[in-house]
Automatic annotation (TrEMBL):
It is found in: Mitochondrion. It is an enzyme of class 1 (oxidoreductase). Pfam families: Frataxin_Cyay. One of its GO terms (biological process) is iron ion transport. Belongs to the frataxin family. SUPFAM superfamilies: Frataxin/Nqo15-like. Keywords: Ion transport, Iron, Iron storage, Iron transport, Mitochondrion, Oxidoreductase, Transit peptide, Transport. GO terms for cellular component: mitochondrion. This is ferroxidase.
């Protein structure tokens, strides 16, 4: 064996692993972990549900005004069971949903794509877990871009 290689047998197959490549892969994995911020503490379950439900209700109420104006063909909102679906017609569909196990709100946007939001207890707002962009600001900006409507949040 080369001093940079290890080997082991499994079911009569020998696998060679380069120690230097393995170390490099581990270091890259740890570097990639730093790109996404993981919450170190989880919200109390009841608090989490209350916060998500209030946020989804706020968005539903504001967007209901746009729905009642009926100025965008195909615009529709649906809310229930911790999921808010916003169909902006030809602009695409948003889905915001409650992710209870990790106490996050996950979203899919036709503009910014998939994101995960954690509740920041210091700022008392839902923030994207990579760049800390507040969810309300992002949704307000994107709805204004797609629908020419100010949510006034």
């Amino acid at each position: 064996n080369n001093k940079n290689e290890s080997s082991f047998s499994n079911y009569n197959n020998t696998i060679l692993i380069s120690k230097s490549n393995f170390t490099h892969q581990i270091n890259n994995s740890f570097n990639n972990l730093n790109k996404r911020n993981y919450s170190t503490s989880l919200l109390d379950l009841n608090t989490f549900h209350d916060l998500v439900d209030a946020e989804i209700e706020l968005y539903s109420e504001r967007l209901e005004i746009l729905s009642e104006q009926n100025t965008i063909p195909g615009f529709d909102i649906e809310s229930g069971d911790g999921v808010l679906t916003i169909n902006t017609g030809s602009g695409g569909t948003y889905v915001l949903n409650k992710q209870t196990p990790n106490r996050q709100i996950w979203w899919s946007s036709p503009i910014s794509g998939p994101k995960r939001f954690d509740y920041n207890e210091d700022t008392q707002r839902w923030e994207e877990n990579r760049d800390k962009e507040p969810m309300r600001e992002l949704l307000t900006k994107e709805i204004k871009q797609l629908c020419k409507f100010d949510m006034n949040i």
